[in-house]
Amino acid sequence: MAAVCVYADLVAVAVQALAGSGVHVASVATAFPSGRASLRTKLADVAEAVSAGADEVDMVIDRGAFLSGRYAAVLQEVRAVKAACGDARRQVRLEAGELATLDNVRRASWLAMVGGADFIKTSTGKVNPASTPATVLVMLEAVRDFAGATGVDVGVKAAGGIRTAKDAVRYLVLVRETVGQAWLHPDRFRFGASSLLNDLLMQRSKQRTGAYAGPDYFTLD
């Protein structure tokens, strides 16, 4: 597990609970999941998470600004949040399900990366469709091209709608085929595992016992 993601008011609790585990603490910020707040409020949200000890901060882009063509405003906000994060890694959620087209997904990916994102993420997990193979493919192509143009590697996270180990394997093949073996690492590719975890636990149990157990024997979301 790369990181556990919590709201800012639970960061201190998570930091204490995970001390010495090697698992990072990430915090959603910038008026998650809607992104509808003033920049001052969003930066205060980020400051609270960072001061509590978050290793990573998740922001969501202003989809209203993006869809109305105010790309400079989106970029400026991404950069402002980057500055407020200090040493914490910054992850930018695109909410691809609201961006309407794959061209918009690519454009939003580039805006996030030019703004200094360490990771770009498909979605908040609150909007359908969230993560799809087509969306992730476009984002992987964007980080590949960005790395080629700048020498900077940006990670990708597929979040939302990935519920089974078989789904996860399909995404891993997509990563391997598009950006190569080096991206198969938590610093470059991750899954949102809140729904996936249950199936992974069931598959591990199947390997040990030879039989499947019901999901209620593990974790329910």
If you had to describe this structure to a student in words, what would you say it looks like?
With 221 residues, the chain is an alpha/beta fold. The protein has 2 domains: 1-93, TIM Barrel, CATH 3.20.20.70; 96-221, TIM Barrel. Helices cover 45% and strands 13% of the residues. The chain contains 8 helices and 7 strands. It has a 7-stranded parallel β-sheet. The longest helix is centred in the middle third of the chain and has 18 residues, at 133-150. The chain is globular.
Label the CATH architecture of the largest domain: Alpha-Beta Barrel
- The CATH class assignment of the largest domain is Alpha Beta
Q: Give the total of domains.
A: 2
Q: Fill in the CATH topology of the largest domain.
A: TIM Barrel
Count, helices: 8
Coarse morphology: globular
Classification by helices and strands: alpha/beta
Task: Estimate the mean pLDDT confidence.
Answer: 91
**Helix content class:** 40-55%
Unreliable sequence segments: none
Strand percentage:
5-15%
CATH superfamily of the largest domain: Aldolase class I
Termini, distance in Å?
18 Å
Largest sheet: 7 strands, parallel
List SSEs in N-to-C order.
EHEHEHHEHEHEHEH
